[in-house]
Every structure is written in structure tokens, then in C-alpha cells.
Amino acid sequence: MDRIYRIMVLSSNPITSAYLMLSLSPAERRALRARAHHLQAVVTVGDAGLTPAVLNEIDVNLKNHELIKVKASGGDRRQRERLIAEICGNLEAGAVQHIGRVLVIYRPRPEDPAPARPQARSRKKTRRGTKRSYQHS
Asked: What are the pLDDT digits (tens) for 64-105?
């Protein structure tokens, strides 16, 4: 499935602040918000900001779950908007929702061909005779 990406520019300098984000339709966004409603935040971005370790942890969780919640501590709304844009831009994900300090992020799993399952050895079933068949011999 082809995905559409959009570029989000956060400041007047497009070289330093342009992020490539996954574009979601309103219907997709609504369905993802419903799926994310019961989720708990799996990653917390602390006062140190978005470090490579935090970015890696978000990436690992997106690979495993597709849809995650991230809790951002401190900062104002504008800083959190930049944070979600930076996360989505670096990880090629889509921002689903931003309410207070909770960010909901989605990235579809890559479609891998089904892994080859080892074939089980076929055991030939031997027909077992009934008790009567042994008695008539």
C-alpha cells in the first residue's frame, strides 16, 4: 500500500525544520484514535528532551505495536508540537493525536512476506486393526 507523506515546516528555515511525516486521512485518524483510547503511554520524554535513546525506544515500540502513546513532560504546547513533528519526521510515522502531554503516534508495520514455516514430517498412518480382525486369523 502506498502511503502519502507530507512535509511539515515549523519555522522560516526549511533546512533545519522540515520533517517528512506520514499523512493520515480523517477517517484513518478517527479509527486510530479509537484504537489508542485504552492504551497507556509506553515512552516518556523527560526534561532532557528527545535523545537518541528515547528515539530508539519509540522506534522499537512502533515496530512492535504500530500505535503507541508517548508522554512528554514539561514544555508548552508549541514545544510538544515540535516534539511530535520531530519524532514523526525521524521515524516516518504519523501524528494521530496530541492532547495535553500525551502524543499518539502511528506507523504501519512493513509488509513482509509470510515467513516460511518448516514443513512437518509426514508420518504415515498405519491402519490398526480392530480386536475382531485379530481374532479371526
From this structure: 999 999 999 878 899 999 999 999 999 999 999 999 999 999
Residue 127, classed as helix, strand or coil, is coil
> Cβ atoms within 10 A of the Cβ of 96, count?
24
C-alpha cell at 21: 511525516
3-class DSSP state of 63: helix
Predicted TM-score (pTM) of the model is 0.68
**What is the β-pairing status of strands 18-22 and 5-9?**
antiparallel
Structure-derived torsion over alpha carbons of residues 25, 28, 30, 34, reported in degrees to the nearest 10: -160
Q: Is the pLDDT of residue 8 over 90?
A: no
CATH of domain 5-110: 3.30.110.60
Whole-number Å distance between alpha carbons of 112 and 91:
18
**Which one, of 45, 40, 29, 43, lies nearest residue 97 by Cα?**
29
* Look-up of cell digits 523527560: 46
Residue that the C-alpha cell 509506553 belongs to = 42
d(CA 82, CA 6): 15
Domain residue spans in the chain?
5-110
